[in-house]
Write a structure and sequence with these properties.
The protein is mainly α. It has five helices and no strands. Helix 2 crosses helix 3.
Amino acid sequence: MTPRQFYSKWDVTYEQLSHICSRSLGTVQCWFKRGKGYYTPQPVDLRHLAILDFLLEHFEELPQSLIKLLCSS
């Protein structure tokens, strides 16, 4: 899932996207630029966004044990 798709679907901030993908805020900002300064997200970034999209879409269906595993610190 592209950053633009995730951003518009889930109404997140650039800072939240940077945390999701473990990228700097500057890198995320470059994903949304047009023309000079545009930076292409890496496949791992797209994968992180796709996985989180799936988890958010199916949160209520996930077993409690998986939620605890994913959300533990």
